[in-house]
Each structure stands twice: as structure tokens, then as C-alpha cells.
Amino acid sequence: YEAFTKMEANPASTVLREKYERMVLKFVYYHSWFTAQQQNCPSADDMCSKDYSSAVFWMGIIAKNQTQLEEKIKLAQLSPSTVAAFEQEVASTLEGTPYMYNLGPMP
Length: 107
Prior knowledge:
Elements lengths: L1 H8 L4 H17 L2 H4 L29 H11 L3 H15 L13
């Protein structure tokens, strides 16, 4: 929420946009329902969302009217390049880079 409101206040800032997008991705991957459904964590030596009773299943936007909602929806969309870069980072952690918490891939 905080990252979105900062970006919303300064929509031309590429730094704030990237920070917002990465925070959303980190939140969704960290609380991945898909990883939690696996029998084991992607890396046997690391913990993952399977080890906790926590998974995200919904994220939404609230607005005062339809026009504001449409503006927020447009602003909230993640860029494909940020998603691809983040997915690549997650994939590289699954290839042997040790982390305490394993994010796991998305389908």
C-alpha cells in the first residue's frame, strides 16, 4: 500500500514504479499459494510458504468512483519486463544460491 501511494503521488518516477512493482512481486511470491500446495519446498534446505499457514489468494483496489478505479487499475499494472526480471531472479535462487526463505516459481 505504501509503495503504491508513493508511486501514485509521483507517477513519472521510474524508481518508485520499480520499487512498487518489486514489492508486489515479492509479496505475491513470498505468500505463493502455488508453492504452499507442493509436497516439499523447491529447495529442500530452505523454508517456503509451505512452512507457514499464509498464502495470498486475492489482491484488490478500492476507489471512490469508477473513474478513479480505472486510473488506479492502470497505474497498478506491473510491467512485463519487471515481472520477467523478477522471475529470472527467483529461478536463479532455485539453482543453488542459498537463501533462508525460498520463494518458489509461479506457474
